[in-house]
Known about the structure:
Helices cover 62% and strands 1% of the residues.
Amino acid sequence: MPLHNNPPLDSSNVTSRAPKFAYALQQAPESPTRRSPPKIWQSDGEEVPDHVAPEKEPVDEASALYTSEEERAVLRRLDRRLVLFIALLYMLGFLDRSNIGNAKVAGLADDLSLNSSQYEWILRSFYITYLLFEWMPVLYAVLSPSTYIASCVAAWGLIASLQALATSYASLCVLRALLGISEAAFSPGVPVFLAYFYKRDELAYRIGLFISAAPLATSFAGSLAWAITKLGQRSPIAPWRMLFLVEGFPSVVISVFAFYSIPNSPGVAQFLTKRQRRVAELRLRREKPRDQQESGRRSFQWEEIWAAVKDPKCYLTAVGIPVPSDNFEY
């Protein structure tokens, strides 16, 4: 007796179901393990081969070696000890270049018998040499910044003080021309020097602090000149000579401090701790070429000079910005 009452298997029924079963297998979704990877397309519409892996974004390994708090502490120290000191130097230089008008009021033109035309050429002599020697800041990349900046400050301080010894129109005109050379060697190159310590997106604020020293000097230059000339009236020398001497000689003294306090690179800044010097170097690693990472300064390259000479934007800037005339109102 059969155990099951199932009807016998019909071979024709099996063959008739086979095509339906095969069609169902074709329409069934693939399992996750057999799913093909998504295709990657380039920007021009071409398909990237499967064996080519997509490029990964570069990882800043240097930023992983210090914290944001450490970076902010380094920036605060650089702002207080470096930027403000450079701004002080610029303020002293601005006083030395702009005190010629106050000296005229104190009797310069009368003692040297200067007419209006001669006085105007004394003013122009400064700006003529200032424009002709604005190429000198390239020496920031050749000489050590501490030596170069200290030399510039000492030079304009000494020349400004020697104006007190001028006895004629010619001697004063020569001294003003030399003063323009010494100041042209310093001021235009300060942004280059600050780039040794700050990132590109940090420079604008620091350059603004540096430039603000000029209007700050203007705000009290008149009052300071009045006080000095009043004291000079009781001295054996002429008040305008006292003005040149008192406002010029401090730059000579400050140049000594500049030589010892201005660092050549972040790695040798004495006002930073050892850890802060390391952080100051690491934070600039991605923005500096390989030859600058060790010394902190870029090597001099003539290719960059010729690139600037051939760039028409440089000439448009020179034509569009007029020569500063802070003294011509006198």
